[in-house]
């Protein structure tokens, strides 16, 4: 070929060589085409698989936690979507110059950020700050720092704050219930997180959602039995009373007599569940269900009911309390003063320890024990509230005279505020202690539950005791300040010496008032307990009864319960009589 | 009806041609192909650079610069088109030495700019001049001038082959110092191609091939590690986290594209997975967003471009304009070779080299040099047409 070309004249171009070059280039092009087909079509499964392994990720989608509401649907705990800031430490570590700006946007010292990153330098994930407010999330996103991203989460808000704190409880940073109903109802409230497949860019940011692997299932909304209006009322009055009496703590519980539902439950001291930054551990306790105390005189109506049940006593049976004290074995039981020869009814009205002891000693230990146990003392209320205490009621086998005597006026046994409220709800009804419920319960359910109990105290005995308890609130009683104009209130005061290490402590008391209303056809049972009032007065009638009176007055009106004490409001007598269909006295 | 309208249109074109001769001497295929490549380039640079631009807070930053370079490039093309081949021939040697000087400037402290570990740019204020891109153009012009001046020497004498090689090696040496193996490869291949087309003896190429093989063998012997890096493209999946990272990401892009692609802008690999997505690896982004169809269109367009360059060159050679002819061949070889290497690298057929895809990749200097090359081809075509060998027709064989 060369020899041939050599002989060509200058005009001869090397057409053959040109074609060769073009041919080679065409071959190269054909090679590219072949390779293109190879990659685009023949190898696509392998290549797409490799790609998917690099950018496809399954991320969890948080599920919405169910809302907690009061009995009328008013929100008490709600979840709102917020962002959490997280980072890929391996990426972020390379952006040292951005750390200062990031720390500023996150509102944390730079050293904290550095510590976080240093601790997780080998990992691919670290939360920088969880559940930030939308403003902060925007600022962080605007920095566009590689390796820093936002993750959607839910934050729990408690609109009623301190007022419902102990009942509702709260969740931890991972949205799991930690205290209160948030913990008790966690299984129902908690949703099932969903999962979705996403495409992430190499910086870890989600570029595109590909598919839902699993739909997130939101948790169930749960209505509590709480009535927010009653709750607020109780909170306000209890807080005021604890402050006024410079007391350590206090609790108040209102139960629905017919259903066993908790309509209100408050404690002092309380806390704000929305801001738990500087929180004392002791403030978290829902004292009404966890803390026990000796119920003192508030137990006397049950003692008396047990005596009435024997048929040997009625309201007018005389009891000799002279001379104001009474020796049982080596112990002297004392009254506040010498009440003289009084009837059974007056034992309740004046709160005579001597009288109660004498009644108790006339009963067999078993009879007495059964009366207490029949209204739920010594057993859990069945509320299922986390950390609930069951109180203490020792077995009657060890009850000698001295034990029987002290138990009759509420020492030597212990109860929670809720337990006592349950016992009073039983006194207010037919003697059957319905298990307590923090969630809504229908009348039918309540009736079903009630059928499981065999009442010990008869309806007539209970009616008689309630009438005696009305005298406590009436003139000459120990709890006059629990009275509510227009309503008949039945209740009992209690002033209990606190026991400490090595016996009872001087000048250290618990003031209690337990009652029910309206006495003619009880709907509500309420117990107010105030721990260590340090004011001038420390009696249950002076410290706890006024809280009862104020809260009950508001509660009866809010619940539209018709007044049953017509003589005290003569002007309205006729109208009320008509409204009640001629009922009343 | 279509016949009826076609008739006057044809006559109108002819009459306009006689009124303004220059306008009639466009090669429509050449301009269509170049225009299509440039348009695809703007589109793909926009798509591929968006994630990076957004991260910098200026989503359109790269497109704006690309469009600015395109304007400069079109101005350069028009300038080339208005410059006669005779003048280019006179300038060719001087331009080559100018190019060598510019290459040396890269190493002047304060002027040279470094990026990605290579000194490839000369800084002039806000502008960066990548002299090696223009050197490709100058080499084409120089070699064309050389084979015309030493027509017989190239064919019959040893020195005719060796002499340009020495000058070429100077340029290659300077470029290798940057270092830029890709451009060196394109330069040498273009020059060899031109010598081959000028009739240089085959045994000389045989010797060169032997030398290259020897050098390669020496490299393997001296530093097997470096060799391993060069050949890592053969099995990138084994080193997908380091040496093979970029290539595996490019291959994934092609695989995701399937037949017609995931659609413009929908590519994932450019989301920081594929480095240099808008420059050297823009082909992978095309492959992902437009699939096999897109890849074939690109290969076809470059094929058409090379065909037009050789056709225009052949026509010039037939009428005795040998300088114009070899400039055309040279441009065809350069663009064709660079496109082949770039696409080959993207598809994992060749070891990874830093080379742009002509007309398409982001990179002002490459874009401007390519535009000027099109201007040169258009000029040759115009001179062909003006020489009046109309009887051969427009669609002569290459």
Total of helices of chain B: 14
Q: Which consecutive residue ranges of chain A, at least 5 long each, have pLDDT under 50?
A: 1-11, 581-585
Rg of chain A over CA atoms, rounded to whole Å, is 37 Å
Q: What topology, given as strand order, has the largest sheet of chain B?
A: 1-2-3
> What count of helical segments of chain A does DSSP give?
23
Q: Say how many strands of chain B there are.
A: 3
Q: Alpha-carbon distance between the termini of chain A?
A: 136 Å
Distance between the termini of chain B: 35 Å
Which architecture name of the largest domain in chain A does CATH use? 3-Layer(aba) Sandwich
Largest interface: A-B, 45 and 58 residues
The arrangement of helices and strands of chain B along the chain is HHHHEEEHHHHHHHHHH
**Total tally of structural domains of chain A:** 2
Relative helix content of chain A: 25-40%
Helix content of chain B: 55-70%
Reported for the largest beta sheet of chain A, the result is:
5 strands, mixed
Would you give an account of this structure?
The complex is a heterodimer of chains A (585) and B (398). With 585 residues, chain A is of the alpha+beta class. Chain A folds into 2 domains: 58-223, Penicillin-binding protein 2a (Domain 2), CATH 3.90.1310; 228-579, DD-peptidase/beta-lactamase superfamily (Beta-lactamase). Chain A is built from 23 helices and 19 strands. In chain A, strand 6 and strand 7 (206-214) form a beta hairpin. Chain B has one domain. Chain B has a 3-stranded antiparallel beta sheet, with no helix packed on it. In chain B, a hairpin with a 2-residue loop joins strand 2 and strand 3. Classes of the chains: A alpha+beta (585), B mainly alpha (398). At the A-B interface, helix 1, helix 2 and helix 3 of A face helix 6, helix 8, helix 11, helix 12 and helix 13 of B.
């Amino acid at each position: 070929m060369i020899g041939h070309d050599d002989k060509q004249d200058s005009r001869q171009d090397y057409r053959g060589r040109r074609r060769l070059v073009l041919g080679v280039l065409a071959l190269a092009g054909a090679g590219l085409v072949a390779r293109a087909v190879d990659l685009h079509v023949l190898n696509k499964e392998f290549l797409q698989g490799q790609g998917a392994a690099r950018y496809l990720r399954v991320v969890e989608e948080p599920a919405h936690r169910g809302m907690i509401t009061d009995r009328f649907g008013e929100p008490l705990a709600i979840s709102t979507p917020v962002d959490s800031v997280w980072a890929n430490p391996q990426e972020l570590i390379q952006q040292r110059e951005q750390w200062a700006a990031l720390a500023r946007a996150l509102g944390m010292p730079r050293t904290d950020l550095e510590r976080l990153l240093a601790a997780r330098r080998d990992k691919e994930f670290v939360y920088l700050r969880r559940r930030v407010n939308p403003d902060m999330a925007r600022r962080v996103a605007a920095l566009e720092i590689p390796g820093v991203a936002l993750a959607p989460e839910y934050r729990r808000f408690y609109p009623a704050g301190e007022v419902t704190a102990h009942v509702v409880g709260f969740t931890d940073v991972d949205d799991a219930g930690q205290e209160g109903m948030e913990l008790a109802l966690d299984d129902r409230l908690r949703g099932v997180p969903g999962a979705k497949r996403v495409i992430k860019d190499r910086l870890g940011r989600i570029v595109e959602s590909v598919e839902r692997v699993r739909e997130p299932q939101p948790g169930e909304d749960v209505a509590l039995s709480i009535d927010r209006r009653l709750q607020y009322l109780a909170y306000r009055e209890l807080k005021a009373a604890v402050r006024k009496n410079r007391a350590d703590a206090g609790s108040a519980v209102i139960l629905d007599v017919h259903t066993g539902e908790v309509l209100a439950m408050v404690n002092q001291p309380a806390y704000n569940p929305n801001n738990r930054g500087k929180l004392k551990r002791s403030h978290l306790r829902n004292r009404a269900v966890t803390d026990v105390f000796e119920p003192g005189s508030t137990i006397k109506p049950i003692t008396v009911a047990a005596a009435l049940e024997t048929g040997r006593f009625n309201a007018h049976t005389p009891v000799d309390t002279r001379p104001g004290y009474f020796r049982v074995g080596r112990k002297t039981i004392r009254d506040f003063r010498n009440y003289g020869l009084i009837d059974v009814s007056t034992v309740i009205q004046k709160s005579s320890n001597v009288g109660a002891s004498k009644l108790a000693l006339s009963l067999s230990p078993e009879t007495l024990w059964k009366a207490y146990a029949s209204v739920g003392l010594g057993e859990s209320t069945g509320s299922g509230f986390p950390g609930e205490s069951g109180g203490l009621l020792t077995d009657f086998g060890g009850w000698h005279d001295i034990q029987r005597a002290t138990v009759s006026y509420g020492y030597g046994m212990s109860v929670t505020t809720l337990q006592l409220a349950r016992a009073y709800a039983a006194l207010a009804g037919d003697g059957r202690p319905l298990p307590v419920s923090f969630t809504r319960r229908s009348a039918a359910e309540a009736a079903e539950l009630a059928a499981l109990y065999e009442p010990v105290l008869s309806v007539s005995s209970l009616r008689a005791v309630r009438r005696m308890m009305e005298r406590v609130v009436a003139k000459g009683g120990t709890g006059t300040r629990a009275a509510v104009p227009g309503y008949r209130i039945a209740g009992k005061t209690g002033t209990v010496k606190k026991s400490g290490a090595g016996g009872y402590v001087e000048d250290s008391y618990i003031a209690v008032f337990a009652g029910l209303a309206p006495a003619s056809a009880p709907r509500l049972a309420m117990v107010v307990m105030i721990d260590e009032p340090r004011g001038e007065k420390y009696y249950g009638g002076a410290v706890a009864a006024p809280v009862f009176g104020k809260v009950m007055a508001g509660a009866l009106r809010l619940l539209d319960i018709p007044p049953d004490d017509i003589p005290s409001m003569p002007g309205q007598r006729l109208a009320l009589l008509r409204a009640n269909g001629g009922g009343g006295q | 009806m279509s016949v009826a309208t076609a008739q006057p249109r044809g006559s109108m074109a002819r009459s306009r041609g006689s009124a303004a001769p220059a306008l009639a001497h466009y090669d429509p295929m050449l301009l269509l192909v170049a225009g299509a490549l440039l348009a695809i380039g703007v589109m793909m640079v926009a798509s591929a650079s968006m994630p990076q631009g957004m991260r910098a807070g200026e989503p359109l930053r790269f497109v704006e610069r690309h469009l600015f370079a395109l304007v400069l490039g079109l101005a350069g093309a028009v300038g080339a088109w208005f410059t006669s081949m005779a003048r280019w021939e006179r300038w060719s040697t001087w331009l080559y030495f100018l190019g060598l000087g510019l290459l040396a400037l890269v190493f002047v402290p304060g002027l040279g700019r470094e990026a990605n570990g290579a000194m490839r740019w000369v800084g002039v204020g806000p502008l960066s001049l990548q002299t090696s891109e223009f050197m490709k153009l100058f080499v084409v012009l120089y070699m064309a001038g050389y084979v015309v001046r030493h027509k017989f020497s190239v064919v019959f004498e040893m020195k005719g082959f060796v002499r340009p090689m020495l000058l070429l090696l100077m340029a290659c040496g300077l470029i290798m110092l940057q270092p830029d193996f890709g451009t060196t490869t394109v330069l040498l291949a273009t020059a060899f191609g031109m010598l081959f087309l000028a009739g240089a003896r085959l045994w000389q190429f045989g010797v060169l091939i032997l030398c290259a093989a020897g050098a390669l063998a020496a490299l393997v012997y001296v530093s097997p590690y470096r060799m391993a890096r060069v050949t890592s493209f053969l099995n990138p999946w084994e080193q997908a986290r380091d040496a093979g990272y970029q290539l595996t990401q490019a291959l994934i892009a092609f695989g995701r594209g399937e037949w017609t692609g995931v659609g413009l802008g929908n590519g994932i690999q450019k989301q920081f997975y594929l480095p240099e997505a808008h420059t050297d690896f823009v082909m992978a982004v095309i492959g992902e967003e437009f699939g096999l169809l897109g890849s074939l269109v690109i290969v076809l367009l470059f094929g058409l471009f090379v065909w037009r360059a050789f056709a225009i060159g052949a026509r010039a050679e037939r009428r005795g304009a040998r300088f114009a002819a070899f400039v055309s061949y040279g441009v065809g070889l350069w663009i064709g070779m660079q496109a082949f290497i770039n696409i080959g690298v993207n598809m994992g057929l060749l070891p990874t080299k830093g080379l742009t895809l002509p007309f398409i990749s982001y990179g002002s200097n490459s874009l401007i040099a390519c535009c000027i090359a099109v201007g040169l081809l258009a000029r040759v075509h115009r001179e062909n047409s003006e020489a009046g060998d109309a009887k051969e027709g427009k669609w002569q064989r290459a």
